[in-house]
């Protein structure tokens, strides 16, 4: 029997899909030679994101194979533009499907893996080969949730003259009657899949389980913005065959199909390098970012990683190059060796190639847009369905009054920085229940002993105390140069920037707390490295309910209201997260230094890869 050939479809929606696809492809390609399959990755995510697996022999093809949810900011969803993108894609679906059918035939694919592009499953069924979904959610439930009556209203803010707060797009629910026929086509594509490899952080997959069914707004209690108890109960049970939708049958051929099945699998995540848990490796990584040596000792310095990640991938520029730009001083690349294959370059949350090209549109006119410093024409999609590119003009990373975090709204810089902890407050939304207040705590004097703590603890603070530093990720070359120019940076004290191609699992591993949006890639890497996670909710993306559950079970998660984030009032949540997770973090650092964690992930990944190959040998094209 010849080696199995997999076609692996990867959604272009965000960074988490790409990292876990590359992780599983790498496990497949590390199998012994007799079992080692051929792996073809197809995605609109740029090639360099899959560098790990491509280095092991995976082949890459760039193609627009799924629609994306439009997120103008890390925790906001543009419902109307998301539906416009979906309609444009559905209009072209038949032509896209035909291209994929011809490509699968050309490469002699035996089985399709998909995370989580429905067209891949549909194309496999048309060719007459099985397909496997590898995911924690599917986009039929995501798009269906755009009809929820919960409204993501902007919070009030003291700096209401700032264009960000004046020009946020209004959040208007999409009528379910408009969504249902579009969502049905996505759902029908997923119904063609035979096996669901369900990742941790999962929510209901309605194309497999009969209950709960779409529409997904019915899963959520509008009074609490949490799943109904019945939905949580459904997640605790592995559905038996009678609880699953039956196979739909191959569209193109008549042959035996496998029974549909849901199989839980471990996290798919890139693991940190063991070297970063050792003093020399930690110092090498910090030195590569430009962190002075006095901040390298974990017993005297705590590190906050600030990373809001990319919002969506689009096809790179025509040059096809994704080589990061470099600088002679504080070079925009990490130390060679352990710290390679980094996160995709981002500008304000959009992933781009070497020309900083992305696709999208401005929520208002260019003159009155939410980001007046960005050059964003209203261009996606055009009436003809074509996509147009725009080029971002990045702002400075910090000004006298604001801190600009790539992918997120600006955060106010407090005028003073007291070090006494305080309680975070303020509603998360005007029409969504408020974020619970953070628990007030005191300092751990075993590590820190500060005097002259100010009595006034009621002012916003970015960091808990002077023992903390912050490393900001996703910074573009333009932002880097602007803040480095003339040595007159407006970054707050203790803030540093990381090169945009830094290897995020290593940086996450050395962090004591990470602040970011609630997405799979960040959650998985925090859980894997036992890094406490302070997150800002994005409640219109229904995946977050599963990710909260994962953090509650396997990690440490503390919610920070967007009002507190934008006010620069981070310190209370950061300290709470650190205190809740410090014991697990210290234990993980010991295990990581010994290589235990990496060995466990490699063993789990090898067993999963072997199972997938055996399943494909039984049911795939090789059996025809």
How would you sum up this structure, described in words?
The protein has 624 residues and is an alpha/beta fold. It has one domain. It contains 17 helices and 21 strands. Strands 3-2-1-4-5-6-9 form a seven-stranded parallel β-sheet, with helices on both faces. A six-stranded parallel β-sheet has the order 18-17-10-19-20-21, sandwiched between helices. Helix 4 crosses helix 5. It is globular, with a radius of gyration of 24 Å. About 21% of the residues have low confidence.
Radius of gyration: 24 Å
Shape: globular
Average pLDDT, rounded to a whole number, is 80
Q: Strand fraction band? A: 5-15%
Trace the largest sheet across and list its strands: 3-2-1-4-5-6-9
- What ranges have pLDDT less than 50 throughout 5 or more consecutive residues? 157-166, 311-393, 417-456
Percent in helix: 25-40%
Brief sketch in words of this structure:
The protein has one domain (1-270, 420-465, 503-624). 30% of the residues lie in helices and 13% in strands.
Please tag this protein with its features.
single chain; alpha/beta; seven-stranded parallel β-sheet; six-stranded parallel β-sheet; 13% strand; globular
């Amino acid at each position: 029997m010849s080696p199995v050939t997999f076609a692996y479809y990867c959604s272009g929606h965000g960074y988490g899909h790409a990292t876990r696809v590359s992780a599983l492809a790498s496990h497949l390609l590390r199998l012994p030679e007799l079992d080692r399959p051929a792996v073809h990755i197809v995605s609109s995510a740029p090639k360099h994101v899959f560098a790990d697996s491509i280095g092991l022999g995976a082949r890459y093809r760039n193609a627009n194979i799924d629609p994306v949810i439009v997120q103008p900011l890390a925790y906001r969803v543009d419902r109307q533009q998301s539906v416009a993108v979906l309609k444009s894609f559905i209009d072209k679906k038949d032509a896209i499907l035909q291209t994929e059918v011809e490509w699968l035939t050309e490469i002699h694919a035996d089985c399709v893996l998909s995370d989580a592009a429905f067209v891949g499953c549909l194309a496999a069924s048309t060719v007459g080969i099985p397909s496997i979904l590898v995911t924690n959610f599917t986009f039929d439930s995501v798009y269906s949730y755009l009809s929820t009556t919960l409204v993501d209203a902007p919070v009030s803010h003291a700096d209401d003259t700032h264009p960000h707060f004046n020009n946020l797009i209004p959040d208007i629910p999409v009528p379910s009657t408009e969504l249902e026929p579009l969502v049905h086509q996505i759902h029908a594509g997923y119904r063609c899949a035979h096996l669901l490899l369900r990742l941790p952080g999962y929510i209901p997959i309605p194309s497999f389980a009969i209950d709960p069914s779409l529409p997904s707004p019915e899963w959520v209690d509008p009074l609490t913005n949490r799943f109904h108890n019945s939905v949580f109960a459904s997640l605790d049970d592995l559905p038996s065959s009678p609880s699953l939708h039956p196979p739909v049958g191959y569209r193109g051929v008549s042959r035996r199909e496998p029974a549909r099945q849901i199989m839980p699998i471990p996290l798919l995540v890139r693991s940190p390098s063991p070297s970063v848990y050792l003093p020399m490796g930690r110092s090498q990584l910090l030195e590569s970012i430009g962190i002075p040596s006095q901040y390298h000792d974990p017993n005297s310095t705590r590190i906050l990683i600030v990373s809001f990640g990319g919002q969506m991938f689009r096809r790179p520029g025509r040059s096809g190059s994704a080589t990061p730009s470099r600088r002679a001083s504080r070079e925009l690349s990490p130390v060679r060796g352990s710290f390679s294959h980094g996160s995709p370059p981002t500008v304000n949350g959009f992933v781009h190639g070497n020309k900083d090209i992305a696709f999208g549109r401005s929520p208002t006119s260019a003159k009155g847009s939410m980001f007046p410093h960005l050059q964003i024409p209203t261009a996606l999609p055009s009436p003809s369905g074509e996509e147009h590119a725009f080029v971002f003009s990045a702002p400075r990373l910090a000004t006298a009054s604001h801190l600009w975090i790539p992918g997120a709204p600006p955060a106010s810089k407090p005028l003073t920085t007291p070090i006494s902890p305080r309680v975070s407050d303020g509603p998360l939304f005007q029409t969504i229940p408020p974020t619970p207040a953070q628990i007030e705590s005191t300092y751990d004097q075993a590590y820190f002993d500060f005097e002259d703590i100010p009595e006034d603890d009621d002012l916003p603070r970015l960091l808990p105390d002077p023992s903390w530093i912050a490393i900001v990720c996703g910074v573009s070359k333009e932002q880097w140069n602007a803040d480095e120019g003339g040595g007159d940076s407006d970054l707050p004290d203790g803030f540093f920037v990381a090169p945009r191609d830094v290897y995020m699992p290593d940086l996450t591993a050395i962090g004591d707390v990470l602040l970011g949006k609630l997405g799979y890639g960040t959650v998985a890497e925090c859980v894997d490295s036992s890094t406490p996670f302070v997150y800002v909710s994005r409640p219109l993306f229904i995946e977050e309910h599963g990710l909260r559950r994962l953090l509650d079970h396997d990690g440490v998660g503390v919610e920070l209201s967007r009002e507190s984030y934008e006010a620069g009032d981070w310190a209370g949540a950061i300290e709470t997260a650190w205190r809740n997770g410090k014991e697990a973090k210290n234990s993980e650092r010991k295990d990581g230094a010994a290589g235990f964690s990496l060995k466990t992930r490699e063993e789990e990944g090898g067993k999963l890869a072997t199972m997938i190959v055996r399943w494909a040998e039984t049911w795939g094209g090789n059996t025809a």
